[in-house]
Amino acid sequence: SAMAQPQQQQQEGEQRCLNSELWHACAGPLVSLPAVGSRVVYFPQGHSEQVAASTNKEVDSHIPNYPNLPPQLICQLHNVTMHADAETDEVYAQMTLQPLGPQEQKEPFLPIELGAPSKQPTNYFCKTLTASDTSTHGGFSVPRRAAEKVFPPLDFSQQPPAQELIARDLHDNEWKFRHIFRGQPKRHLLTTGWSVFVSAKRLVAGDSVIFIWSLVFSFLCSYLFFFFGKIHRILGTDYFIHLFRNDNNQLLLGIRRANRPQTVMPSSVLSSDSMHIGLLAAAAHAAATNSRFTIFYNPRASPSEFVIPMAKYVKAVYHTRVSVGMRFRMLFETEESSVRRYMGTITGISDLDPVRWPNSHWRSVKVGWDESTAGERQPRVSLWEIEPLTTFPMYPTAFPLRLKRPWPSGLPPLYGMKDDDFARTPSLMNPMMNFPGLGAPPWLQPSFNPSMF
Amino acid sequence: SAMAQPQQQQQEGEQRCLNSELWHACAGPLVSLPAVGSRVVYFPQGHSEQVAASTNKEVDSHIPNYPNLPPQLICQLHNVTMHADAETDEVYAQMTLQPLGPQEQKEPFLPIELGAPSKQPTNYFCKTLTASDTSTHGGFSVPRRAAEKVFPPLDFSQQPPAQELIARDLHDNEWKFRHIFRGQPKRHLLTTGWSVFVSAKRLVAGDSVIFIWSLVFSFLCSYLFFFFGKIHRILGTDYFIHLFRNDNNQLLLGIRRANRPQTVMPSSVLSSDSMHIGLLAAAAHAAATNSRFTIFYNPRASPSEFVIPMAKYVKAVYHTRVSVGMRFRMLFETEESSVRRYMGTITGISDLDPVRWPNSHWRSVKVGWDESTAGERQPRVSLWEIEPLTTFPMYPTAFPLRLKRPWPSGLPPLYGMKDDDFARTPSLMNPMMNFPGLGAPPWLQPSFNPSMF
DNA sequence: ATGTGGGCAAACAGCCGACAA
DNA sequence: TTGTCGGCTGTTTGCCCACAT
């Protein structure tokens, strides 16, 4: 019975340091956080979308305009902290941003700004709970491959083979489960302790659980990987895991709730109007004074990734040509927490909100999706979300849309590409309009290395 | 077993019309909402306090100033809707305010603006739950007087006397309880159905429940009371209640949670800075354009009643003299949901935040409390929260603080009071500074009737 | 390979009066 | 008057396997 009690290590107030692997696993394979210190592009418009999704209220029309707030702000990302809601375990990130002046925007890219985003953990599994899993009648049926991959091995000389598993959640609470291999045919089960977890987290059939086999001193591990990279490559990852597996291993446990019909959350703190105004005013004030501001990014609340690495933005907006009729692919998360690509066709390029946010790249691409189940996929995407295909357009564009960009003259063409190769709609005609006085763009600096993209 | 199931009448989205009596009972005896259509004074500073209390974050110093936003706005209250959080049953109110121009501020008071605030229901009881009440081992022990007052009478000819009670909560969900009178000595108990309620509302020992015996058509009842006031006075209230008791009665059920150590709620939607900015910017924008804005008032989240009837404000600020050393009484809510008065002495009169909110009446009075358990009571209060005593000050004031008010000359003195009778600190010297161009104040209009206060 | 259901024992929920504060 | 407890059912929880998919 003591086994069934989770040892709640109540650490109210500020979370110390949330496990990054677990956070990313819960956030999903498509979510990546820009590196601390890197430059990012912040979209008030996208931020607004997130608030609208959280409050279930569309942005009202009588919200004042902030004419000095451009549709995107180039910022330095000073701080990123990962959080999880104490009640629901919903993951979110807090970011501290500082708008940059023209000088800083122009500086060449740093290595961290070009690095690959953090990946999903390797030794993990994610299972969508069945009715049996969440019922009080029984325990949790562990898929065989999953158990073999992420759980410590059982002693099969015993009958039945069993062990006690201890897993930690995002709040560093400990959950104990009896892991047993029994039944006819044999299968892995979590019995004692499981229902306590289900009721504490209020899980229902359709929600998912994630188990990760992690190394406690993963930072030390990374350190060793860095210095002994060659040894690692020779001996393989398993050797390194083996080094730590005996003492310092740990099982992590996260949840991901099904996309239930959102409960109306009128927040009872601040009206949604005030929230929208607050977000805009905070950004406008920060932009005017070049001071820091703080935002919350809630990856599962809305499909609006509104803080984008600057390198990704620059590549997509300036180094990719798109036109109406062009085919593209875009990544989506599957039900099983992996990714798949959906195909579509660009049907238009225009401002999402020409009145409030003219000349914004936010969701400037109107698209149609190939598959008939496309009702749930957005009809508008941003340039950096899609991978245009280099094949011919599906059908010829109604009009060419090929305008000569007002690129600073006298500069060498980019990567063997001529100016004429860029296609722009009128609204996208001058992408530099928000960087007054900006001279040679950063990606024209000698240190800029396009091959790193 | 069907008895134990609450009939959840899920009405997602907008609440229709919450029961006002129940809302007020849950909000507590000190909470009153201004009348729709009346003029009120809105304090951004107090609103800010509520956001700070909700987010557990003090207002940061680098939030921009809104120099055009006065510390108090005279507004018309266009709409008030009562709400209850779907998760926690926490009560809150949504108000739509519209800042008024000088002309409208000056208009004479309407009857609704001078009416008494809504009272607590009469036929109700509130009990703080014991360990036995919340334990799964037993039911709910109903205090005898409470049961006799608010529950329908039992048939004592039966052995044991018992009946089924049906009560409705703020969300209009139905809860059924078996009410039985048994034991040695005899007592009233709620048995079947009680534990379902306790676990559904997640009640713990220390929380309170409120039962109200209400009339469904209370508006009709008020209507009759109004027209047949004399008959009512002759026949007595019981006659009127009897008229409706047979068919249209209903039992209401609310909860009030103990003041547990507040769970940190970083909201995960918007940073507390942005919320503060949002509140200020929304008010400033509304003030500049004389347009409506919406606020949420959360009476139990913080002791900051930041929307005050204008009449109450005017009376306290202009028609009450206070000085350092003066004794006063102030109402507080007791644990048992009734009120008691605490005594204190005014120790100073000054701005709470001279930098950000100069010349504000919000919590401008520094006080000391008589009782040693005063640690939990605020050291600063607003003028309209206290009842100054007309007795002599406890100790003579260090300096007179008696300044001649710059009252418009040529007007008759107020209610036989001479100008000299008003005592003001320098910061409160000119209470009209926020009403530029204001002539004779509303309380000088012939229709203003001070006896209604 | 894994979801569901019957059988069964142990644990818990929940109704009762006794007692004491 | 009312909070808590021991006694005593009836229901639920939860571990086991069989069986079906």
TrEMBL record, chains A, B:
Auxin response factors (ARFs) are transcriptional factors that bind specifically to the DNA sequence 5'-TGTCTC-3' found in the auxin-responsive promoter elements (AuxREs). Homodimers and heterodimers. The keyword Ribosomal protein does not apply. This is Auxin response factor. One of its GO terms (molecular function) is DNA binding. It is found in: Nucleus. Keywords: Auxin signaling pathway, DNA-binding, Membrane, Nucleus, Transcription, Transcription regulation, Transmembrane, Transmembrane helix. Residues 125-247 form the TF-B3 domain. GO terms for cellular component: nucleus.
